[in-house]
Design a protein that fits this description.
Elements lengths: L2 E8 L3 H5 L2 H4 L4 H7 L8 H17 L7 E19 L5 E17 L6 H22 L4 H6 L3
Antiparallel strand pairs: 1-3, 2-3
Pfam families: Ribosomal_L22
Subunit structure: Part of the 50S ribosomal subunit.
Protein name: Large ribosomal subunit protein uL22
Amino acid sequence: MQIIATQKFIRMAPRKLRLVVPLIKNISPIMAVEVLPHIGKRAAEPLRKVILSAIANAKEKKLSENDLVFKEIQVGEGPRLKRYHAGARGMAKPYKREMSHIRVVLMTKSQIPNPKSETKKIIAGNKKLNARKILKSKPTTESIKKGGK
């Protein structure tokens, strides 16, 4: 079961939020909530709030918070507000205030796919694709001249 929490229109540039995501994506959500205040970045606070929201959503679905892991953390771009600074000689200097959208997806530890079985499926799929390509391939002019396919 996937647990999704989103926060939209955060008044912070996405590139600043994306700096914090690699620090927490490989640890549990409970541990991430404890670590984020000590990172020393302003971007940690909105991420912490979204993770807490996702944990609360999991509790609402009667899931244990200790069994949760991150499936994905997305930081997307939101709209940009156009603003102006007063410039020299009465000119306006434009700048943009960037916004972000955060999406956190959690899942239980029991849902983590087995990497060995996944690679077997991929290899089997590739063999089928190769067989189809061979069947669909058209004979070349050289093979026609020689009399073979």
